[in-house]
Design a protein that fits this description.
There is one protein chain. With about 425 residues, the protein is mainly alpha-helical. It has 19 helices and four strands. The protein has helices spanning about 1-5, 20-25, 25-45, 55-65, 80-90, 120-130, 170-185, 190-195, 205-210, 215-220, 225-250, 270-280, 285-300, 305-315, 320-330, 340-350, 365-370, 375-380, 395-410; strands at about 15, 50, 70-75, 95-100. A two-stranded parallel ribbon has the order 1-2. A two-stranded parallel ribbon has the order 3-4. The longest helix is centred in the middle third of the chain and has 22 residues, at about 225-250. It is globular. The relative contact order is 0.11.
């Protein structure tokens, strides 16, 4: 993006704090954003203008004030981002809004079938995605442009402070350090360790990818042909795939991608809301589920394997709408990404692309034994497990599995 922008002359680096997004993000996600903005500003010697308001109002006002001949942004393919950028483009009139790059290895819409239609299944998408490839990391930096001093521009605001303890810490410096540490110490074993919440086997880069403090092209450049590296590359492909699915089917941010699931019976009465509260509090009586929910509440992160277990429990043991769980995750997760979150939940519920077969109902007890065999993860987050104060299982898993299958079979998922 900076490469394209600097070709048009002096550059004003700007970030617009949109009140709509500030109002919908949890405190940890906001602090990650704020901390990242402060570090970026420091890296540019203070030459970052942070302003607040609707981008469709603030950007045209800044363009007029400094006489800009173009506006350059990283393309946003989420439903909200597409609408926002369309409004900015319309408000700019004759001044072009240039989408110079995106936060993905391969942007949505660029990997299609031979007939030009989007992929609905990950495996063939992945093959085409790899064949298409991507550019090398950008080589621009703080000295790559002639910067306009934001002190000469009106409308700047201070970046808010926060007091949450972030893990991982925000900013590009932290991102690069964390990535380098992961590559040197954990990448080789990633294929085996990534499903083990009791081990430090994942990169914890999801929040950095969400906020752009590191670009996936930077990460892909460090991935060789080893088993662990290729397993990691596949996860980056999933991120691109889900972004593409959401771009092509924007309604899937809220509704079932597979509309046949609109007919499934879910519980949403007063008792359902009570059970939802028990799940959120990590008091279900199923240790691996409770450990994940408490890790989420206390840190803003949950191990991906445990996310799948907790999601399966909500939709197939408690029979609650997947949207309830997806909304809670987005409120709590520092790395909350609309595409990955919503479609990860739909995978668990069976109503998305490449969804788990309807008959796959995770047994939280056997999942815990398999992926946390020594109980280290549970002991960390549920220290009272085994004591009289720990609750009994809130449901009988075997019975609820039968009930879940009954509901799925009612809508014809077996055919």
């Amino acid at each position: 993006m900076l490469d394209a922008a600097r070709a048009d002359g002096a550059v004003l680096a700007c970030y617009v704090l949109d009140p709509r997004l500030e109002g919908s993000a949890g405190p940890r996600r906001l602090q990650f954003l704020y901390d990242s903005l402060r570090e970026l500003s420091d890296g540019l010697d203070g030459r970052l203008l942070v302003t607040r308001g609707r981008p469709g109002v603030r950007i045209p006002a800044l363009v007029k004030e400094i006489g800009a001949i173009s506006v350059h942004v990283s393309a946003d393919f989420s439903p909200f981002g597409v609408r926002r950028d369309a409004a900015v483009r319309e408000a700019l009139g004759d001044v072009p809004l240039e989408e110079s790059g995106s936060p993905y290895l391969v942007s949505p819409g660029r990997v299609t079938k031979a007939d030009g239609t989007p992929y609905k299944v990950f495996t063939p998408y992945y093959a085409a995605w790899r064949e298409r490839g991507w550019r090398a990391p950008a080589k621009t930096g703080p000295k790559s442009a002639q910067w306009i001093d934001p002190a000469d521009v009106g409308g700047g605001v201070d970046v808010p402070a926060g007091d949450a303890e972030l893990d991982p810490p925000a900013g590009e410096t932290a991102a690069r350090k964390a990535w380098k540490r992961f590559v040197s110490s954990s990448l080789d074993d990633y294929a085996e360790d990534r499903d083990r919440p009791d081990r430090d086997g994942t990169s914890r880069m999801s929040a950095h990818l969400k906020f752009g403090t590191i670009h996936p092209r930077t990460m892909a450049a460090d991935l060789g042909g080893g088993k662990g590296a290729q397993a990691y590359l596949r996860e980056l492909a999933f991120r691109d795939f889900y972004a593409g699915v959401l771009y092509e089917w924007p309604g899937s941010a809220r509704w079932n991608w597979n509309t046949s699931f609109d007919r499934i019976e879910v519980d949403d009465d007063r008792d359902a809301k009570r059970r939802f509260g028990v799940w959120k509090a990590g008091r279900t009586g199923f240790p691996i589920v409770d450990a994940g929910m408490r890790q989420l509440a206390q840190t803003g992160f949950m191990h991906n394997r445990v996310r799948m277990i907790a999601a399966s429990f909500l939709v197939k043991d408690l029979h609650l709408p997947w949207q309830w769980g997806a909304r809670w995750f987005l409120e709590q997760l520092t790395d909350g990404d609309i595409a990955s979150n919503q479609h990860g939940w739909q995978w668990a519920a069976g109503c998305g692309t490449d969804a788990a077969p309807y008959f796959r109902v995770f047994n939280p007890t056997t999942q815990g034994k398999k992926f946390d065999p020594d109980g280290a993860y549970v002991q960390r987050w549920v220290p009272e497990f085994g004591d009289p104060d720990y609750p009994e299982p809130m449901v009988d898993h075997a019975e609820e599995r039968v009930e879940a299958l009954r509901r799925y079979q009612q809508i014809g998922t077996a055919t």
